[in-house]
């Protein structure tokens, strides 16, 4: 009977028996599109664990433990390995190696084996598990193991070092928060922000957040700076250069020319005259490139004095 069933599996398109284990079990190469999941499966896996299993399979290109299938009426059904099959499909695998029961199991036997494989999973000795965890010295390996932090204790310190390398130098934190105009308990909010120990706390209108993010993104593409911190630093350096070019100092009060003239622009002919005057004043040493604005002050002072 088992031999006939073994031949039956090879009649499924794409299936190939690799080894006959005896007792109605064979190891076979099986196309995933020929495998059917059970309608009911009691075993549950967290999404993040399922995602990690998918990542592990994609990285290796194969399953590291073989699922158990059963041949029923010329079709393959899963007894054990629903999540492995799901992750293999998510990893875009087309076929996998599996153990297939070809002994002709009844529906009752299939259900019993499904429950048995789910239930007989054993348990870990915590002290031994911690000793094994200490052998892991790579953060990717730690993530792949999916060992919970509660298991680690002593290895936890090393785990944190791998995720966030310890630094032996001074560093600064900046907290910049975009908030709605109407914010209740502002004092409580500021205290909460300050409790995170930032060196600078900045608050801006919530509506400005979108423009800030879009401009920052454009600037990163324009300058080919991918690191957000480096991009902001570059923007600040450009602003500092502009202030330095106009001779800005923190002594005294400064204001924008647009605030004085009510406009950022002047007619082209007027601009040409102004540029000529600036060049002449710089050539004669009356002003420099860093205090061109002072020419306006001199002219206005002469005008007020009646010269």
From TrEMBL:
Name of the protein this chain belongs to: ParB-like N-terminal domain-containing protein
- Coiled-coil segments on the chain, per record: none
Note the Pfam families from the entry. ParB_N
Among InterPro entries, the record links this protein to: ParB/Sulfiredoxin_sf, ParB_N
Q: Where is the ParB-like N-terminal domain?
A: 28-119
Task: Please name the SMART domains in this protein's record.
Answer: ParB
Q: Quote the SUPFAM superfamilies the UniProt record gives.
A: ParB/Sulfiredoxin (SSF110849)
């Amino acid at each position: 009977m088992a031999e006939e069933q073994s031949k039956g599996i090879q009649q499924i398109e794409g299936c190939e028996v690799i080894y006959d284990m005896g007792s109605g079990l064979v190891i076979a190469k099986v196309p995933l599109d020929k495998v059917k999941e059970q309608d009911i499966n009691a075993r549950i896996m967290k999404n993040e664990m399922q995602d990690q299993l998918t990542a592990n399979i994609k990285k290796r290109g194969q399953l590291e433990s073989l699922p158990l299938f059963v041949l029923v009426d010329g079709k393959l059904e899963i007894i054990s390995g629903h999540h492995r099959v799901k992750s293999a499909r998510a990893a875009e695998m087309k076929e996998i190696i599996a153990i297939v029961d070809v002994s002709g199991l009844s529906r009752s036997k299939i259900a019993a084996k499904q429950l048995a494989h789910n239930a007989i999973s054993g348990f870990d000795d915590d002290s031994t598990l911690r000793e094994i965890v200490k052998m892991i010295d790579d953060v990717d390996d730690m993530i792949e193991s999916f060992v919970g932090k509660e298991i680690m204790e002593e290895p936890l310190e090393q785990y944190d070092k791998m995720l966030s390398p310890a630094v032996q130098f001074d560093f600064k934190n900046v907290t910049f928060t975009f908030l709605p105009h109407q914010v209740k308990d502002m004092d409580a909010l500021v205290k909460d922000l300050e409790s995170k120990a930032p060196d600078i706390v900045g608050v801006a209108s919530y509506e400005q957040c979108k423009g800030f993010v879009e401009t920052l993104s454009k600037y990163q593409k324009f300058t080919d700076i991918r690191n957000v911190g480096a991009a902001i630093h570059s923007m600040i350096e450009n602003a500092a250069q502009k202030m330095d070019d106009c001779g800005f100092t923190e002594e005294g009060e400064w204001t924008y020319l647009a605030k004085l003239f009510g406009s950022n622009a002047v007619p082209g002919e007027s601009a040409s005259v102004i540029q000529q005057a600036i060049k002449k004043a710089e050539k004669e040493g009356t002003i420099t490139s860093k205090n061109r604005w002072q020419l306006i002050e001199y002219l206005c002072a002469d005008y007020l004095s009646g010269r």
